[in-house]
Amino acid sequence: MDYYKEKGLHALANVIHVDKTGWFHGHIGASLITGAYLLESGLLSSYAETSLQARLDIIIESYSDYFQPITRSCFTDIMPIEKALNACTKQQNLSGYGFIYGTLALRVLHQFPELADSNITNAIAQLIHNCQKDKWAKYYDLNNRHNYQSISCQTITVFDICQLAVEKSAQPMFINSHQPFFTGEKIHGLTHAYAIYQLNQLGYEHIAHDALKHTIKQLEFAAHTSGTTITAEAKAINLHDPAIWNEDCANKNQLKLAYSFCEMALELTLDSRCLHKLWEAISTKV
Predict the structure, then answer these.
(1) Main-chain phi, psi angles of 224, to 5 degrees
(2) pLDDT confidence of residue 286
(3) Mean pLDDT of residues grouped by 10 in the chain (286 residues)?
């Protein structure tokens, strides 16, 4: 499993070497890291673990450009990622890509500090900065997004945000001819919330606290309805089933979703129908 964590870290760092303005393909490294932690979780059967390992190997084979060796420097330094995440709290892309990628990287580097080569951490920091591009236009019928004021009056803690994300993400999904399928944003709401929770667990309480306001906005934005409503049924999934990591795993976001939900469920009381519904919805062709 450590093999996939190191590979995932390198994939995150290689995004800017493949495309200096790139951000989306951080999903490759994120998939490997979340898959590695799922393999360690004890939540999968031995057959499912073998199937998931095969899925991770396919990802490595399919995106070879993102696994090229990175020249090592003479010293280690984790601070570039920490500084980049802190900057995210000032001007954050609401989908939370930077937080998700950065938190996964920090989790690996806290476990294996010897991997924090400055060339790797500086590259991941740049990836996080690239995620800050303004993509608010994906949210339906919000003409004044920058000045949007959250309607939430309650005081939210990092321990509340996961529960709130699960509740909001289980609501109906929306689509019309002009807007994207909102399932993606509901999944990001959940994975973003867990990234903040994990940051807090890693000792970055101040960064996690400052990020909460963006996550609350994201959850509110994703609740805006658009034209046609598609309600995804809660189709039960079995993480012990090897097939779930084969043909049923068509989207790399599913690995982040399973990782985030399953780890949250170990510490919080969550409604499993949310995981079932989001998994079914993200697999739906529309």
Answers:
(1) -65, 130
(2) 43
(3) 93 96 93 95 91 93 93 92 90 74 97 96 96 62 57 72 80 56 71 90 92 79 63 72 75 82 80 74 57
| φ and ψ of 117, to 5 deg | -60, 140
What does the chain look like in DSSP terms, one character per residue?
Answer: -HHHHHHHHHHHHHHHHH-TT--TTHHHHHHHHHHHHHHHSS-S-HHHHHHHHHHHHHHHHHTGGGG------SSB--HHHHHHHHHHTTS--TT-HHHHHHHHHHHHHHH-GGG-BHHHHHHHHHHHHHTTS--GGGSTT-TT-TT------S---HHHHHHHHHHHHTSPEEE-SSS--THHHHHHHHHHHHHHHHHHHTT-HHHHHHHHHHHHHHHHHTT---BEEE--------TT-GGGGTTT---THHHHHHHHHHHHHHHS---HHHHHHHHHHHT---
Largest CA distance in the chain: 56
pTM: 0.88
